[in-house]
Structures are given as structure tokens and as C-alpha cells.
Amino acid sequence: MTGRTAGTRPAIPAELVRKLVDTQFPQWAALPLELLDPAGSDHVIYRLGGQLTVRLPRHEGAIGQARKELEWLPRLAPRLPLAIPVPVGVGEPGFGYPWRWAVSRWLEGEVATVEALADSSEAAVRLAGFLAALQRFSPEDVHALRSRADLADQPLAARDRATRAAIAQVGDVFDAAAMTGLWDAALTAPAWDGPPVWFHGDFHTGNLLTVDGRLSAVIDFGGLGIGDPACDLTIAYTLMSPGSRAAFRAALDVDDATWIRGRGWALATGLNAYTAYAAVNPRIAAQTTRQITEALVG
User: Fold this and answer.
1) For residue 2, what is the DSSP state?
2) Does residue 8 carry a pLDDT above 80?
3) Potential cystine with 204: which of 20, 106, 171, 238 (Cβ 3.0-4.6 Å)?
4) How far is CA 178 from CA 184, 188, 262, 264, in A?
């Protein structure tokens, strides 16, 4: 989920990636490498030829993603109504780079934008359909899988101290009383009492792709897990307006307790990103300001 821990951040120049690809996947040695920028906070991403991408973790918090995606995404892809990355290989550490890394099929598309889709009830309903299909995925005993550390959900309460500290830090920018009220309501809402279901775990605008203005793909499944699906409601506040948000909620049939926990997730992750990046990245400042403000609106 958003807010993974950072640690050592190795340099990942093109020369290093070229050596890793050429030695471990010699069948692709002739393909050109092109750095994608901005690539995101968790991975450096290179396009490899016309059909592949190479994704290398930037920090320790993202190092399990390559294996997780290789295990689950090929099984999920046929069951989901939007395209998702299809891993084709996992590389090993080498040449001083310390972690596993992934090669996946290239997905065409542009990152979804609020300007294009915020008021689209059609897009909101498609996203609800994606989450509903993900939650229905049941390959085996989900209760047993939930015990796996790499698929475990994180209780909202685990973010309490950091979220209250962030509220105090940005109280001159946003309404501190309103943020505290929402956070208290989210923490005291009834817990998820349904069966454990699959969630994306980092379901926000930056992880959606569009082609010709229509949603086409969902990417970055590093937070994939099993448990309470409320964290995925963050998309209602990073992308949608009140009208499309209502259509999304109705299509997904979200109960009141899950909805308020989802607002809590949107507030907590928005504050986490805002306090970490807003001072140095105007784009993230604008995105997270909207996320926090929309979460307060409801």
C-alpha cells in the first residue's frame, strides 16, 4: 500500500540495466533501452524495445513486487475487465544492484487525469467493475493465503500516529478540525465483517492508463493483498468528482462503514504523500491537495 518504507537507494543508470538485461536475458540484448521519466517513487522503469518494460526497485519497500506480480498477475489478467501488466521474467541481483527486478509486457496508454475523467460516471462504473472482479477472484483458500506476509492487509489504525502528526503539521493548509473528525470517524467505524477479498492496495489515478480517453489498464500491483477492500476506495478521491463518486459507490455497493474507512485511507495516504513530497514537487502537491480536499467532502 502507499507509504511503503524507503531505505538504501542504489544508483540505477542505463549502463547497469543494460548489463543486467544482456547477461540474464540475452534474447533481448539487441533491444534498445529508454528511461521512462517520471517513473514513480518505487521503481526505475526502462522501456525495452517496443513490447517490454524493465522495472527495478528503488528501495527496500518495493523489493517483493517482482515475485508477487509474477505469481499472481498471469492468473488475474483473464478475470479482470481492464488490462494489467503481464510479467515475462524476473531478474536476479547483479553488478552491485542488490534486488530482484522484473520484465513485463509494455502497456500502451497515458496516465489517467482528473481533467479527462473526474466527471465521467462511465469511467467510475468501469473502475467499480474492475474492483468487483478483483474481489471475486478466489483461486484457493483465501483465509490461508491471508496469513502470507506479502498479501497481508494493514489495519488503518497502524497509521494513526503518523496521520495525527501530519494533521498537526499541515493544519495551516487544510482544516485540522475536519481532518481530525474524519480520521476519528474512520478509526471508530465498524471493521470489515465480510469474507477476506483481494485488493489492489495502491489504487489511485497514477496507476490507471487510458487510450483515446477511455480507461484501458491498471498497473503497479505491489500492494496486492487480501483482507479489507476499503483501501481501494482511495480512487474515489484521487480521480472522481461527487457525481461520478456516487455512481462508483452505487455500482460497487459499498456499505457506510467501508465507505468511511475508505475516506480514512484517502486522507491518510494523501497526507503521507503531501508531507513527504509537496515541498519539492508541485505536481504531487496539487494531486494530494485535491485528494485530501475531496476526502473531506466525502
Assistant:
1) -
2) no
3) 238
4) 10, 15, 16, 12
Q: Please tell me the distance from the alpha carbon of residue 14 to that of residue 161, in angstroms, as a whole number.
A: 39
Q: How many whole angstroms separate alpha carbon 238 and alpha carbon 134?
A: 20
What residue ranges define each of the domains in the chain, with the CATH number in brackets?
Answer: 14-105 (3.30.200.20), 110-297 (3.90.1200.10)
- How many CB atoms within 10 Å of residue 8? 9
β 43-48/33-36 pair status: antiparallel
Which residues have C-beta within 8 Å of that of residue 55, sequence separation ≥ 6?
A: 43, 44, 45, 65, 66, 101, 102, 103, 104
pLDDT tens track for 18-55: 999 999 999 999 999 999 976 667 899 999 999 999 99
Kindly state the DSSP code that residue 155 receives in the 8-state scheme.
-
Q: Are 268 and 183 in contact (CB under 8 A)?
A: yes
User: Which amino acid is residue 252, in one-letter code?
Assistant: L
